[in-house]
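Kindly go through the following sequence and its backbone structure tokens. Advise at your convenience whether the structure tokens fit the sequence:

___
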Amino acid sequence: MESTLSVPPPKHVPIRERVSAGIAAFRFSRQERRALREHGFALQKLGESLGSRDDLAERLSESLHEVGERRSKCDAITSSLGRSLDDDRADYAEVPALVRPLVILRGLAHRGVLRARLYRARKELSVAWERLGGDALDDDSSLTVPAAELARAARAAALRACEDRDRVLAPYGGAALPPGMARGAREARHLTKSVAKEVRGALVPRLPAVAGMGVGWWVANTFTDSSFSATLHSPRCGRTTMPTVLEKANTLRALHQGPRLLVLANVWDCASARIVAKAGLPALATSSAAVAAIYGYPDGERISRDEMIELVGRIAGCVSLPVSADVEAGYGQTTDDAAQTARAVLACGAVGINLEDTATDGRLLPVEAQVARIRAARSAAEPLVINARTDVFGVEDVPAAERMAEAIRRANAYLAAGADCAFVPWVVDPERISALVREIRGPLNVLISPKSPPIPELERLGVRRASVGSGMARAAYGLAATIVRELLDSGTYRSLAQGAIPYAEMQQLLE
């Protein structure tokens, strides 16, 4: 935003005053840039939320057409990436071992180009969403959706910061530095840009050769038995940094194989995630019902995919443990919906998902449809640990006498389709749990409640994963209700001390 104030600078101003004014102006400029970034992000979110509204089609047809083109381009490149990986796998299995490194190199080069194109296409799609949001906001000043209000607030904040900066610099002619020093600063900036341009021109043409040398080095040390390769792949080598997504996924998958039962206390925000991680559990899982409650939604896919992924990403980013995300039924019933959700979960840093087989009307999806959705999720995000959930015991369209057999049939079909674990909630009877463990051909996850057998008993029965679902969040909200009732009924505060974490400890936990 351009300055509108221009006052001739005074002839003699102490340098200390100019420095103070320059520091203040820099702070206001930084606030302005931050507000403008928030404004662009809000416009992008506004465009995404309005893209499917029919009442905007006539007035914003050009922007909508551009969004459609950019989205189709992203989908086409994503499909090409999947086909490239499938082709390389087929070729790798057919060619002799001596030629396999060449297949790997070809695939890496091809997918590298595709990923670069996908990155540019996604940037263009974000710009198109932002343009659509801006056009919609200019066209209809009465929009009251949250993204529109955020965009207006960010723009107002940017204008205020610009005005404050101009007000601070006005007594000095719009610049804190004296004219001579300002000219020197401009010349130094131009010189820096020139040097950077020369260095870039000298290095960029050589980058392909450097990349080729690096890939050759990797192939030589991957496909040989050299002692250096053994050192490179040693478990003690390079473990000072955060584990990668692939390492977290492998860790979470291994935890389903025993010998100990994987116990998951489902979390719903960063504070609960830090508490559970500090307690010593080896992995975390989210609760879709508890996350939805934070946004003010009831359970059952009332929350949007974007809102769920945003909070899952925050949780995954605040801990170093593997995180499995409860994404309900994948926010849509098609294979594309399942694939898109799986990709989004992996991209935000989580390494596992719960995928239910319940439709939006509360009925079970056909087994064939859910199998196809699991295969799509596996193909879209191969490292992801898929916990396939069947709600046979929670719906009314399956007779009680047939639920056990139907749960076993569905669980085995989902495992055969690529799931890593079968989740059968609402079963608390030890005999039924034992039968499920015996008949299901893979790890079993159960939902634990006060009526469930103790953890040692579940482990003895052969259960591999046990989760509390939304139980821990509901218990926390129940304590809040107890505190409020005590305040209203007796005017005392004893409930505030029931398991409360000290303020200093909570501060340290979130540092």
